Amino acid sequence: MNNTTKYLIGVIVVVVLAWSAFTIYQQQRVEEPVATGPVKIGWIGPLSGAAASYGESIKRGVEMAAKEVNAGTVELIYEDTKCEGADAVNAVTKLISVDHVSAIIGEVCSGATLAAAPIANQDETVLISPASTSPKLSEAGRYIFRTVPSDTLQGSYGAELVYNKGFRKLAVLYSNEEYGIGFNDVLSAKFKELGGEVVASETFGRDDTDVRTQVTKVRDANPDAVYLIVNNPETAVAALKQIKELGVKVSLFGSEGLKSPDVTAAGNVSEGLIVSSVSSGTSGFIDRHRAENNGADPGPFAAQGYDAMRAVNLAILGGARTGKEIADALHKLSFEGASGHISFDEHGDVAGGYDVLVVKNGAFVPAK
Amino acid sequence: MDVAQIIANGLIAGSIYALVAAGFSLIYNTNRFMHFAHGSIVTVGAYALWCGFTKFNLPLFLAAIFAVAVATLAGLATYRVVYRPLVRRGASSSILLIAGLALLFFFENSIILSFGSNVKSINYFVTEKGVNLLGAAVTPLQISIVLLSVLFLILFWVLMRYSKIGITIRAVADHSELARISGINTERVQELSFILGSALAGIAAVFIVLEQNATPFMATKLVIKGFSGAVIGGITSLPGAILGSYFVGLMENFGAWFLPSGYKDAIVFGLLIIFLVIRPIGILGVTKGVRE
Q1: Hey, how many other C-beta atoms are within 10 angstroms of the C-beta on B258?
Q2: Nearest partner of B42 among B65, B29, B23, judged by Cα
Q3: Does B5 touch chain A (CB under 8 A)?
């Protein structure tokens, strides 16, 4: 085979490849508006990394709701984003431009959801978070929704909870990122407004397991209650242990991030801890979750994950397909979800109530 | 101000960093590349302890030996399966560094796959208020961690200083080519440093699980702190790496006391940068070879 023949064959191969690529591209373009096949829904959240246990719990809730519609109506596409902003941005871009999803459920961590929000807005695709509670998310755009109430509500609720139990000197230990900072701002402001005093306000990295010096500072401030805000069970367990070891003997309060089986499994350190938590689900939802997941109780945000998927289901069953149609449909929705009554306000937020739980004999029980 | 408490907090953190840094520095000196998967060996050891204790119902002492053994084997396996074949094919130290990072992720994700991502605690000791030691509240476990770390590090130093194995290891670290010409099997010595370094990582793992808990992601933090300790103290010097680790532990806790606590990690990395710029060989480092 001489060089000319090789050259010719090369040209032919390139032409054939280009032609087939073009044909396939055209076929896809023709198929797109027909919208047969299932409606694709993206899911982003942590399936690895320190927050993976939240991601797994939410995924179970989402799957329960997905099963409620006829097989083949919706198709879920999962992307692991590790609660990282950069990963969330990549995943949302991929889901929108490659998979052509109609809506996306996620992210879990507020920082990651905020990072992904501008892309979802720009591409007019609904992003509905089951777990991001940062107050900033309310202003994140028209296409951003959530089935979990904002920390503006939980922060105030937490402050009132502590104040109404008669405590006046509060120390706050919070994780140094979007969630912890947002929660602490609201909590501290409300507690001061009520007439209490925030005697210490210490922060730590989301993955830190050594917070002894922060706890030492809290101990020196002589508070009569400590509020722990973190959404990483590993850090929560370490902090609770070190609070006990350093002899800080005060009432302990925690944000809903502490409502994790890891915290109760850590032994005596969590005994008496009071946690304000977004709803863990109606009793009907809990029973169903047990039946469908080998007897396991719903994990954190499983009910909110279920509600997010249910809301999307209802919008799609109502005939909405494009991002704009789905967003409009969501605003008109009103239904009884697993976490309570769901209806989105103009910011895409839900009202939602809180449960107050206390750790007794190694289990979360409703507080009186 | 609670000086005693801050010193205690720093020493507890420093002891764990030192055990990681000592192995890291030993492996670096004989092999001349950064074994970033060293942190994962700690994770493997931690999960081995958890398995031994809760799954196989071994007594804690046996479970600890099991953990150290598994960590040692895991370290040896990374050398035999990944690093040695690469070195034999003439891989540069940057290739080995990337291989180490790959191993770090490999171990992390394998552990998530087999054990899930939740926190594993042993709760062998009931957590209670520590005893008062010179004004600092420390638990008996924490006192034993500091004492045992120091004991193991002294044993390790004696081994390196006086035993035949130690002298051979130092010869290879000093000049591997010369050592080879004098009839030392350098590959064997490099393997041996992986065994010793990984055993130290296994000991660190036991302490970490008892004191804190085990998660698949503990490796990254440890390797970064251990690495910073080793570089600040002088990575070419074993006592330096240990000293540097205690220095890091104390500085981050004192820093967190004086400054807002959010700066805790910034202090460590700030120190690391200062040392890299002003004294890249570290406190006790030497430009060539290795100090005992």
Answers
A1: 11
A2: B23
A3: yes
B62 is written with which tokens? Answer: 């046996």
A247: left (phi over 0), alpha (psi -120 to 50) or beta: left
Mutate to test the interface with A, among B215, B225, B259, B268 (most CBs of A within 10 A): B215
CB environment B71-100: b (16+ within 10 A), e (fewer): bbbbbbebbeebbbebbeeebeeeebeebb
Average pLDDT, stretch B40-51?
Answer: 94
pLDDT beyond 60 at A18: yes
A220 closest CA partner among A210, A231, A230, A212 = A212
Angle CA B233–B239–B242, to nearest 5: 60
Q: What does the mean pLDDT of chain B come to? A: 88
pLDDT band at A1 (very low <50, low <70, confident <90, very high): low
Does the distance separating the beta carbons of B129 and A247 come in below 8 Å?
yes
Contact (CB, 8 A) for A43 and A78: yes
Residue in B117, B121, B262 nearest the CB of A48 = B117
Burial degree of B55 (CB within 10 A; 0-12, 13-18, 19+): exposed
Q: Kindly determine whether residue A213 and residue B119, on different chains, have CB atoms separated by under 8 Å.
A: no
CA distance A176 to B53: 34
- Looking at beta carbons, which residues of chain A come within 8 Å of B116? 53
Q: Give me the residue spans of the domains in chain B.
A: 23-218
Residue A48 has what DSSP assignment?
S
Nearest to A176 among B108, B129, B262 (CB): B262
Beta-carbon contacts of A21 under 8 Å, excluding residues fewer than 6 positions away, are none
